[in-house]
Specification:
The chain has 428 residues and is of the alpha+beta class. It has helices at residues 4-18, 23-42, 44-47, 64-76, 80-93, 98-109, 126-144, 243-247, 280-287, 311-331, 334-338, 352-363, and strands at 152-153, 156-158, 165-170, 175-182, 185-193, 196-197, 214-217, 235-237, 256-258, 270-272, 276-277, 296-300, 305-306, 341-347, 350-351, 369-380, 387-398, 402-413, 420-427. A hairpin with a 4-residue loop joins β3 (165-170) and β4 (175-182).
Length: 428
C-alpha cells in the first residue's frame, strides 16, 4: 500500500512553496500540470470518462467513493480548489483512504512544480502507484458504465422466498452487487468496490492466489472477536470448493468475504489471496443482508446482463423438468425416474450406474411414494448457458420412510438444443 509518510512530506513541501506564488499564476500552473499529468495518468481525458460529463455522477453525491469521483471530475473540469476541498473533507472522515491521500498529494505538489505522473511524490514505490492508479480506474469506470437498472444478471433465474438477497461479484470490474428478492425476481439494491485475487480469477488449486468463479453460498459468520485485524470487522466463508469445483479437480479452501485492516480503507483491485474484500464500512452494510446457508454468492469474471423477462423462458423450462422429475419419482416407475439423470451424474463417490443400482434396490421396497418440493432457487452458472444450480426444500414420505431435507441439484443441458438432465444431487 501507499507510503503515507512520503505523501505527507510532499504535501508539506508543496504547501510551503506555494506561498511564494501569485494566485493567478498558481491556478494556471495547477491546470496545466494536473490536467496533462494526473488525469492523463488515470486515462480519463483520452477516453472522455469524466470531463464535461455531468451525467457521470449520480445525485446527490454521497459516500466516500462518490466524493472521490466527484473530485476527479472537478479536476477534469479545472475546478482545482473545489477538488482539493472535497478530497480534504473526504480524508477527515476516512483518513486511511490512501487513494484520496495520493490525489491530495498530487494536487498540492502541482502547485509548486510540474508533475510527470500520478503519485509523483517522494517515498512511493512504483508498485504502490500502479496499485492506486488501478483502483482509481476501477472506481471511475463504474461511474462511466453504471449498473443497467433495466437489466439483471442472467444468473438469478429464480430466488426462493426464504432468500432475501443475492450477491454478485464481478472480478473484472472490482464490483460487488446486491440484488433484492421481490417475488422471486431480482431487483438491484446497491453495489460496492471490491478487491479480489492477486493473480486474477478462475481459481484452480490451493495457493494460486486466484478468486474462484461459480455459484457459492455463505456458510458461516465469523465474528470480529475470532478474527485478526487483517480481516476487518467480520468474515463470511463461502463453500469453495463447491460440488462442481471438486468434480473438476479444483482445490483450496478459505475463500471468504471480509473487510480490511484498521489502518487501511481499501485495497487495490488485485490484492487478496483469493477472497472478496470490501472496505469495512461497506462490509458492515453488506453483512446485514447475508443469510448463512441461504444467500448465494455468484462470482463471475464478467457479468452478463439480460432483460428481467428473458429469464422467464429458462425458468419455466426448468420448473417443468423439476416437476417431471418429482412426478416420475412418485409414480414408482424407476426407469422413468432414472431417465431424469444425465450420463455424467455423480453423487458423493457414486456414478450414474452405481447410484441407479442403489435406487432400484430401495424402490423395490416401496408401495407408495409422495414427494413435495418448495422454496425453489435457480442460479445459472457464470460463463455457461448449460449448467444450473437448483436448491429446494424436499418433503418425502413412503410406506416405510419419511424426511424433510434441503436438496441441491446441478442440471446440465446435454447438447445445445438437448434436454436438461440432473448431473449432481445431494442433501445440503
Amino acid at each position: 500500500m501507499a507510503d503515507t509518510a512520503g505523501t505527507g512530506r510532499a504535501m508539506k513541501s508543496a504547501d510551503s512553496l506555494i506561498t511564494h506564488k501569485h494566485p493567478d499564476y498558481r491556478r494556471l500552473f495547477i491546470t496545466a500540470t494536473i490536467l496533462t499529468s494526473v488525469i492523463a495518468a488515470f486515462g480519463l481525458l483520452a477516453s472522455g470518462a469524466l470531463a464535461n460529463d455531468h451525467s457521470a455522477l449520480p445525485e446527490p453525491v454521497t459516500g466516500p467513493e462518490m466524493q472521490l469521483v466527484k473530485s476527479l471530475q472537478e479536476i477534469a473540469e479545472s475546478r482545482m480548489d473545489s477538488a482539493l476541498s472535497g478530497v480534504e473533507q473526504l480524508l477527515k472522515t476516512n483518513p486511511n483512504f490512501r487513494l484520496a491521500q495520493l490525489i491530495k498529494g498530487d494536487l498540492l505538489l502541482a502547485r509548486s512544480r510540474p508533475i510527470s505522473n500520478m503519485g509523483d511524490t517522494a517515498g512511493l514505490s512504483q508498485q504502490h502507484i500502479t496499485d492506486l492508479r488501478e483502483e482509481a480506474l476501477a472506481r471511475v469506470q463504474h461511474y462511466r458504465e453504471p449498473v443497467p437498472r433495466n437489466m439483471t444478471p442472467k444468473y438469478l433465474v429464480q430466488m426462493p422466498p426464504e432468500q432475501n438477497y443475492a450477491i454478485i461479484a464481478d472480478t473484472s470490474k472490482s464490483r460487488l452487487y446486491i440484488y433484492e428478492n421481490v417475488g422471486g425476481r431480482a431487483r438491484y439494491l446497491a453495489d460496492y468496490y471490491i478487491s479480489s485475487g492477486k493473480n486474477g480469477s478462475q481459481k484452480l488449486k490451493e495457493g494460486d492466489k486466484k478468486t474462484p468463479i461459480g455459484v457459492y453460498f455463505v456458510t458461516a459468520n465469523v465474528p470480529r472477536e475470532k478474527l485478526t485485524d487483517f480481516y476487518g470487522g467480520a468474515a463470511f466463508p463461502i463453500n469453495y470448493p463447491n460440488e462442481w469445483d471438486r468434480r473438476n479437480g479444483r482445490s483450496g479452501s478459505g475463500i471468504w468475504i471480509h473487510g480490511t485492516p484498521s489502518d487501511t480503507y481499501s485495497r487495490p483491485p488485485r490484492a487478496s489471496d483469493g477472497c472478496v474484500v470490501l472496505a469495512n464500512e461497506d462490509l458492515h452494510t453488506v453483512a446485514k443482508r447475508l443469510q448463512v446457508g441461504i444467500t448465494p454468492v455468484i462470482i463471475s469474471d464478467e457479468i452478463e446482463w439480460i432483460k428481467p423477462g428473458d429469464a422467464g423462458v429458462l425458468r419455466n423450462k426448468l420448473i417443468q423438468h423439476l416437476e417431471n422429475w418429482r412426478r416420475d419419482w412418485e409414480s414408482g416407475n424407476i426407469e422413468a425416474y432414472i431417465g431424469n439423470y444425465g450420463r455424467d451424474f455423480f453423487s458423493g463417490s457414486q456414478n450414474l450406474a452405481e447410484w441407479s443400482q442403489h435406487k432400484r434396490q430401495v424402490n423395490s421396497a416401496k408401495n407408495w411414494i409422495k414427494v413435495g418440493i418448495r422454496n425453489i432457487g435457480m442460479f445459472l452458472y457464470p460463463g455457461r448457458d448449460d449448467l444450473m444450480v437448483v436448491n429446494f426444500d424436499q418433503e418425502y414420505s413412503s410406506n416405510n420412510h419419511s424426511n424433510r431435507i434441503k436438496k441441491r441439484q446441478y442440471w446440465m443441458r446435454e447438447s445445445k438444443k438437448g434436454q436438461w438432465k440432473i448431473i449432481y444431487e445431494s442433501a445440503v
